[in-house]
């Protein structure tokens, strides 16, 4: 039986070039150990999206994955942009918004009122932004010798030598060709090129334009394509662009094993490609999410969302309170444009198999477009 296999598969010790993207959430993650293990067991590479977990929680999840599979898997983290950055407590940010951004503070009050969300709930984490916490999270991944560490945002330069010492491979995610250069200087082993179609924080260059430029820039470092990949056609296209694997987020939001609340699943299923838009309302940084009543309210307010971490802190409080006030549908629902094509909920192993089987069929079918030419 024909399957897909690239040199990167051998390097990672996996059978097929399908990687399930790390997908964190404010105080949790979409990527359950069951999801990660199922993808790895199916021959791909599962990846815990660990940014929203405390260090000991990350350790627990890593061990849960290990109890379910002996195959390779990864952990995705946001690393500090600089080790010199200071930790910022959420209370300081809350006070700053009240003092310096009264219009935003008033708008937030109106949001709580309008959606009957109880404002006495506050996001429980002490830090709004904590390079210390990020380092502690990375330390757990190093101590546990997880096969692959993925750096979603930030500068992995400090962690690469430590990871290599522990036998860990490092992947760095980029959204623009010029960012690839920095990742190479940092010493990453693999570059993920994530186009603007992707769910979550995203840049402005589309996958079709980004991947070949990054490939040209970083060869011989292998490139993984991300953004808008969710069926055999898009997997085949990514390989044609020079990628050696795909990093799929949105496709695995539809996996039965993913942690996705039923109300968010319903939004995802109903969403068309144009209902998944880039905005700054939840975090202050451009992020592609399914439009909902909250993103619409921000758009109608005429207010520019505040920069990160100010916007993150005020909106984390709101979404934490919304979940506890019976409105989980108001929570940030990151997803990519390809969600418009997806509506089937399936086991993760079925998704991996389908991506491979369909891609094999698409690639096998392409020679029908080859012709000897007029003068042959
Ligand atoms: C729900 C969700 C959460 C995400 N969280 C993270 C994250 O915590 N860290 C990260 O590096 N990327 C995150 N991303 C981006 C994905 O890792 C991946 O790059 C993206 O989903 C690929 O594009 P696609 O959604 O079109 O497949 C997230 C994406 C989604 C959909």
Q: Determine the mean pLDDT.
A: 95
Count of beta strands: 15
> What is the H/E order?
HEEEHEHEEHHEHEHEHEEHEHEHHEEHHH
Secondary-structure class: alpha/beta
- CATH architecture label of the domain at 7-86 and 130-268 and 342-363: Alpha-Beta Barrel
Q: Give helix % range.
A: 40-55%
| Number of distinct helices | 15
Q: Strand order within the widest sheet?
A: 1-13-12-10-9-8-5-4
Top CATH class of the domain at 7-86 and 130-268 and 342-363? Alpha Beta
Distance between the termini: 34 Å
Could you describe the largest sheet, including whether it forms a barrel?
Answer: 8 strands, parallel
User: Would you tell me which CATH topology of the domain at 7-86 and 130-268 and 342-363 applies?
Assistant: TIM Barrel
């Amino acid at each position: 039986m024909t399957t897909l296999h690239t040199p990167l598969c051998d390097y990672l010790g996996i059978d097929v070039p399908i990687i399930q993207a790390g997908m964190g959430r404010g105080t949790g993650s979409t990527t359950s150990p069951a999801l990660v293990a199922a993808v790895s067991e199916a021959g791909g590479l599962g990846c815990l999206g660990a940014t929203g977990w405390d260090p000991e929680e990350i350790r627990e999840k890593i061990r849960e994955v290990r109890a379910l599979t002996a195959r390779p898997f990864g952990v995705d983290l946001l690393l500090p942009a600089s080790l010199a950055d200071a930790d910022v407590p959420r209370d300081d940010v809350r006070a700053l918004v009240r003092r310096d951004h009264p219009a935003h503070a008033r708008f937030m009050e109106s949001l709580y009122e309008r959606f009957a969300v109880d404002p006495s709930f506050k996001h429980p984490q002490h830090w709004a932004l904590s390079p210390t916490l990020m380092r502690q999270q990375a330390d757990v991944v190093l101590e546990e010798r997880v096969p692959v560490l993925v750096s979603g945002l930030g500068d992995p330069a400090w962690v690469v030598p430590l990871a290599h010492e522990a036998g860990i491979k490092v992947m760095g995610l980029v959204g623009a060709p010029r960012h690839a250069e920095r990742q190479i200087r940092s010493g990453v082993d693999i570059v993920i090129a994530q186009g603007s179609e992707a769910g979550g924080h995203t840049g402005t260059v589309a996958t079709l334009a980004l991947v070949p430029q990054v490939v040209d820039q970083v060869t011989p470092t292998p490139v993984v394509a991300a953004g808008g990949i969710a069926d055999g056609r898009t997997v085949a296209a990514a390989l044609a662009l020079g990628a050696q694997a795909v990093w799929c987020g949105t496709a695995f939001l539809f996996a039965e094993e993913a942690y996705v609340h039923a109300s968010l699943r319903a939004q995802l299923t109903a969403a068309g490609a144009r209902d998944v838009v880039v905005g700054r309302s939840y975090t202050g940084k451009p992020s592609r999410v399914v439009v909902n009543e909250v993103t619409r309210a921000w758009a109608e307010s005429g207010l520019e969302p505040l920069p990160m971490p100010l916007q993150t802190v005020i909106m984390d409080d709101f979404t934490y309170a919304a979940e506890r006030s019976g409105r989980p549908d108001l929570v940030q629902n990151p997803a990519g444009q390809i969600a418009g094509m997806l509506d089937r909920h399936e086991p993760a192993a079925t998704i991996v198999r389908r991506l491979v089987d369909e891609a094999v069929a698409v690639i096998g079918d392409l020679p029908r477009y080859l012709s000897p030419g007029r003068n042959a």
